[in-house]
Structures are given as structure tokens and as C-alpha cells.
């Protein structure tokens, strides 16, 4: 971009260099990609939690931005985060709250575009294993399925149980993934309850396998559970990567916001035509019923609400003593710089 010349006469060359260095990410927003081959880690790609990622991939929106993305699918968000920390992934498509968790461990990662404006996680108890369930206290000593230990499904279960005075150590968490394995784990009695995402939870609910006891698939349900808006799926990266690769980050944000824009008007048949057949878990009608339940949870324009970051911190600090709210700098956990430009570009 060549907008610098407007102010050139008003600066000494030294001041200009300083200003250019400070404004570099902004000035180079649509410039050459610093890195075009990008490794993305995700935990449970076939779930609706990550639908915007799949849509942007399937419709060629990453390619349109000059990106060659390789997406690796893991059993849950905690595993995807490990890939980023271990250096095998550049970007994670995962839950925003991991940025807070990592900062509490002095590791700085930053969210750059939002895909989910509600967690879309539901918790249910097995109607077979716990037919007489009455309150959360009944879960003490039980086996609870989560996508993967340490993932956002695990965090939500911890939050709910803590409100009933149940510590994480009072239950056994079992990683069951987010697809067919999760269905069979509950139906075969390997677990007593489950905190998971759709389409799995709707499939279990509609067949009468679970009784839903907490639900963040709607904005209203999210408000009831968290007391405010709760940002969910996003792209997060090492803060150093964001600083060093602003054009690449802009391209990533553009691709996702393009997908979000498409999703705003997409009908059920559009979704079915776009996602891989395996995502339907053998039941097209139930898959579409799940989509109807979580549609509201999908972000609209990629922007991360400031109030939502405060909600996330409050929720995590309420059950995790290692997170000291007063020591977390929320401004370092996210930036809306890239999403704002993408929103303008696609009129999202």
C-alpha cells in the first residue's frame, strides 16, 4: 500500500522511518504474504464448532487469499494447542480461552479472528447410566466424557461442577473426541455424562440417550451459564508470529470472515453440499437439526467482543486457582485489527 506519501513532507526522514516501523502491520495489510504455506491445527474439525473453518476451506477462500493451508485434525482443542506450542502448527482453530490460560503460564498467544460467538457446548447425563439424575451433585464420582482433557468442553464441565462444590478431582474425565467415538462411548456405558459439541449432542438428545443439563448453543443459554457473551472458536497464534507476519494474518482473517459472510445466508442444503459426507455421521436429518440449534452461535463478522474476553477471564478464574485475574492483560490475548479490515472488505 502506498498511502505513506501523503504525509511524507511533514516528517524528517528519521521520524518517517520510526513512524513506518510502528505502522508496518497497517501499511502492509494487503501486501505480499510473509508465509503462504500455513499449518493449521484443530481439535474436532467435523463439529459445528469449527464449521466456518471447513466452509472457508471447502469454498477455496484460503486459496483466494494466496494461502496454502494444511489442516491437521486432533481429538480435542488441548491437543491442537500442543501442536502450536510444539512448533508443528502455525495457527490453531480453537477456543479463545486458551489465550488466557497460556498467558497465566507466561506464554503469549493471540486471537485474530472469531468464528464462534457462543461456545455451542452442551452437557448432558446418560439416561441409561443415570436415570434418576436430579442435580449436579449427583455427578460426584462419575465418569464424564469430554472431547479431550484440558479442552474447552472440559473447562465448561469444570465451571458447572465448581458451582455445585464439585472439584475436577471429584470426577473422572474421559477423552472421547467429537464424533462417532463420542456417541459410542456414551451409548455403551463407558461414561455417565458428557460435555461436548454438535452434531454429537443433538444426535444423543434426539435419540433420548442424554438429558441436557446445561446448554450454550444459543446466545441466551450462554448468557445464563457465563453471565455475559463468551467468545468461542477463533484463530489464535503466537504473538510473535502475529507481529512478524501481519499480511499472512490478514489473509487468514479474510478467509474466515469470507466464510462467515457466506454462512449468514446459507441454507441447510448449501451446508450439506459443502461439508464432507463423513461429517453427517450417517444421519443427514439429524445433522441439519444440529445446524439449526447452533446457527446462532456462529460469529457474524469475526470481531472479538471486549466484554466477551472479560466473561472468559471471569469464568476461568472462578474454578482455576492458577489463573489470577488481576495479572492477566486481556489486551494481549486478542486483536481486532485484522478482523476489522476483513469485515470492511466483505461487508460482513
Mind explaining what this structure looks like?
- The chain is an alpha/beta fold.
- The chain folds into two domains: 208 residues, D-Maltodextrin-Binding Protein, domain 2, CATH 3.40.190.10; 95 residues, Periplasmic binding protein-like II (D-Maltodextrin-Binding Protein, domain 2).
- It has a five-stranded mixed sheet with strand order 2-1-3-10-4, with helices on both faces. Strands 7-6-8-5-9 form a five-stranded mixed sheet, with helices on both faces.
- Helix 6 links the parallel strand 6 and strand 7.
- The longest helix has 20 residues.
- It is globular and about 60 Å long.
- The N terminus is likely disordered.
Number of helices in the DSSP assignment? 15
User: Approximately what portion of the residues adopt beta-strand conformation?
Assistant: 15-25%
**What is the first-to-last residue Cα distance?**
23 Å
| Count of extended strands | 10
Assign a percent range to the helix content: 40-55%
Q: What topology, given as strand order, has the largest sheet?
A: 2-1-3-10-4
CATH architecture of the largest domain: 3-Layer(aba) Sandwich
Order of helices and strands: HEHHEHEHEEEHEHEHEHEHHHHHH
Q: Report Rg.
A: 21 Å
Number of domains as seen in the coordinates: 2
**Inertia-based shape:** globular
- Assign the CATH superfamily of the largest domain: Periplasmic binding protein-like II
Can you give the mean pLDDT?
Answer: 92
Largest sheet: 5 strands, mixed
Low-confidence stretches: 1-29
- CATH class annotation of the largest domain: Alpha Beta
Structural class: alpha/beta
Do you know the CATH topology of the largest domain?
D-Maltodextrin-Binding Protein, domain 2
Amino acid at each position: 500500500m502506498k498511502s505513506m506519501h501523503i504525509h511524507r513532507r511533514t516528517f524528517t526522514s528519521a521520524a518517517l522511518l520510526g513512524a513506518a516501523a510502528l505502522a508496518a502491520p497497517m501499511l502492509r495489510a494487503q501486501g505480499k504474504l510473509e508465509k503462504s504455506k500455513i499449518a493449521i491445527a484443530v481439535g474436532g474439525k467435523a463439529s459445528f464448532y469449527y464449521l466456518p473453518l471447513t466452509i472457508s476451506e471447502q469454498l477455496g477462500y484460503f486459496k483466494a487469499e494466496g494461502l496454502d493451508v494444511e489442516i491437521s485434525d486432533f481429538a480435542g482443542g488441548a491437543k491442537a494447542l500442543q501442536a502450536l506450542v510444539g512448533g508443528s502448527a502455525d495457527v490453531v482453530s480453537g477456543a479463545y480461552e486458551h489465550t488466557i490460560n497460556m498467558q497465566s503460564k507466561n506464554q503469549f498467544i493471540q486471537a485474530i479472528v472469531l468464528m464462534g460467538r457462543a461456545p455451542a457446548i452442551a452437557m448432558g447425563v446418560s439416561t441409561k447410566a443415570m436415570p434418576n439424575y436430579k442435580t449436579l451433585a449427583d455427578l460426584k464420582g462419575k465418569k464424564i466424557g469430554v472431547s479431550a482433557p484440558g479442552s474447552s468442553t472440559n473447562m465448561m464441565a469444570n465451571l458447572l461442577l465448581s458451582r455445585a462444590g464439585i472439584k475436577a478431582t471429584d470426577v473422572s474425565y474421559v477423552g472421547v473426541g467429537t464424533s462417532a467415538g463420542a456417541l459410542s462411548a456414551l451409548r455403551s456405558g463407558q461414561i455417565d455424562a458428557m460435555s461436548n459439541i454438535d452434531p454429537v449432542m443433538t444426535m444423543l438428545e434426539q435419540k433420548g440417550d442424554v438429558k441436557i443439563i446445561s446448554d450454550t448453543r444459543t446466545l441466551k443459554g450462554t448468557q445464563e451459564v457465563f453471565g455475559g457473551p463468551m467468545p468461542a472458536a477463533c484463530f489464535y497464534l503466537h504473538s510473535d508470529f502475529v507481529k512478524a507476519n501481519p499480511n499472512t494474518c490478514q489473509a487468514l482473517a479474510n478467509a474466515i470472515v469470507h466464510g462467515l459472510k457466506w454462512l449468514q445466508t446459507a441454507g441447510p442444503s448449501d451446508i450439506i453440499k459443502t461439508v464432507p459426507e463423513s461429517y453427517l455421521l450417517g444421519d443427514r436429518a439429524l445433522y441439519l437439526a444440529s445446524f439449526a440449534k447452533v446457527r446462532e452461535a456462529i460469529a457474524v463478522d469475526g470481531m472479538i467482543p471486549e466484554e466477551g474476553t472479560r466473561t472468559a477471564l471471569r469464568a476461568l478464574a472462578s474454578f482455576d486457582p492458577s489463573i489470577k485475574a488481576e495479572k492477566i492483560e486481556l489486551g494481549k490475548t486478542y486483536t481486532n485489527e485484522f478482523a476489522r479490515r476483513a469485515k470492511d472488505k466483505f461487508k460482513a
